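Posting here for the record, re: 4-O-methyl-alpha-D-glucopyranuronic acid.
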Amino acid sequence: MNKTWESRLAWLKALKTPVPAELNNPLEVADFEAKTYLNFEKTGRSVCFKTYPAMKESYAIETAGDGYIISGGQPGVLYGVYALMRALEAGEKLPSGVQKPYYPLRMIDCWDNMDGSVERGYAGRSIWFEENRFDYDPARIRQLGRMLASVGINVLCINNVNVHQPAQHLLDNLLPQVEQIAALLRPFGVRLMLSIDFSLPLQNGVETADPEDPAVADWWKKRAREVWGAIPDLAGFLVKADSEHRPGPNAYGRTHAQGANMLARAIAPFGGVLVWRAFVYNCMQDWRDTNTDRPRAAYDLYQPLDGAFDENVILQVKYGPYDFQVREPVSPLLLGMEKTRLAVEFQLAQEYTGHQIDLFAMPPLWRDIFDQMGKERVRAIAAVSNLGRDGNWTGHPFAALNLFAYGIFAWKPDASPQQVIRAWVRNTYNLSEQDEEQLIDLLLASRGVYEKYTAPLGLCWMVRPEGHYGPSPYGYEFQAWGTYNRADRNAVGVDRTERGTGYVAQYPPKWKKLYENPHTCPDELLLFFHRLPYDFVMKDGRTLIQRIYDDHFEGVVAAETMAETLKALPLPEEDRREALERMDLQVQNAREWRDVINTFFRRFSGVDDVHGRKIYD
Ligand code: GCV
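Prediction output follows.
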């Protein structure tokens, strides 16, 4: 166990005193935080609370004489205290009027396994498990509760959606330990959720897991009674079914609505929600098959089921139709399920976005998605955790920004990336205005830089299949995952217009029209929708091949410039060392991407860089 964590909250570093174990509810925590913070700050100001149970998660902050009045429900008052602190730390105006979260369900999904590994985890081992048992420090879990509450996150799923042994037992003999974690997080207004295995009845003496079999439904009802008997405020279950070899209703000839509704009915009496993931596609595709197009899969499967899901089912849809790539168009499923409760799923873990080595501040990506989708399309929001046992929680100290910003976006999906990044910087460091601006600019630009040296123009999946870090233009090309660039000596990309796979037709007319014409399609998604020759002329007059070269060269220069900027920033010693170590790796990574991808395309196209820059043979 890393010993340094205790002094390191990822932001609100002004909160030096650990939250005492004896505090039992959000109001007590709110009181403690307000007192210790204001003492720490020596403002001499007081905070008093007015609680209105009906306000639940909402709060309002008023100034009264020399102090503040925070009114709200539970945990609203606690959110109010943290909002006050965030505003004071950031030198922002206090929020005016009643503040209510836009999404009632704001969840973090840990992909933690009970052996202590974290699937796609880049911040050390699991904070919950080791050696197939629970292994955690209660004080650290309280610190986590504090961090989540400080940005208004209210649900935490502690185990991987790929449920590996012995996580099946979280619902039976390990339940008392889940209950202990629920108790640790309850004072912070954070409720637990559990990932479950659809075939659980089959593993427990029932002959089938067929959702239409009454024995299966009865088994789940009984289990739900026991689980909610132990943890009455459990938020619900999260299910990955018929996806990447996980069991599901398809094996019994049943639809996903039948599968989800059976589970939803078992947990409805306890107020549980059933979060059903829509990440379903053929992961055994033959690369020779050019008719199957993976981005189509989720819409083709789920759209016909619109309206068939029970009220307490939430269909959780990844933001793009592929899988958390650097740039994807919004998933058409998010635009096409009017009668279904949807959650959009983000990934804070930087699986395809730099492994928490390379900088990748996510707010600009989320802004794009909300702008394309409209915040009202979804009724909940979820994100894969980027947390681990590392002293700073997220591996890269700046990766904490993504967790912070996610919480803010879940309350205010209209938020401006720049404002949110500024708030994080000010809540985390004490920098001069000039240094602060440099750090904000660097973070704001980081996604664009990463995109330039990795994935030009929406062309995804040129990454190494093992681990998803570093370039490999052929890595996925002849695999079964349905992820192909189909580059040859004339052209690159997949035609997803109606002349091609027809994927573009899954969008409403406005988007379809924009995307289907390569002359109107936004450059950054050009090769997502189109197969184009290397001499295709882009909007700015450059050829496609030249644009690919330029992006890769420019991406490296930008990464090198970021490294220089970072070196000059007076960050706290530990953060500075961690950030610079990773920055060196990022620059190496950027150079590798540039050289591999440029060489790959030059070998195919035979075209040189017009500026005569070095492309290897
Ligand atoms: C949890 C991708 C990842 C897997 C992940 C899966 C999912 O395929 O590489 O690690 O599994 O998405 O979201 O279910």
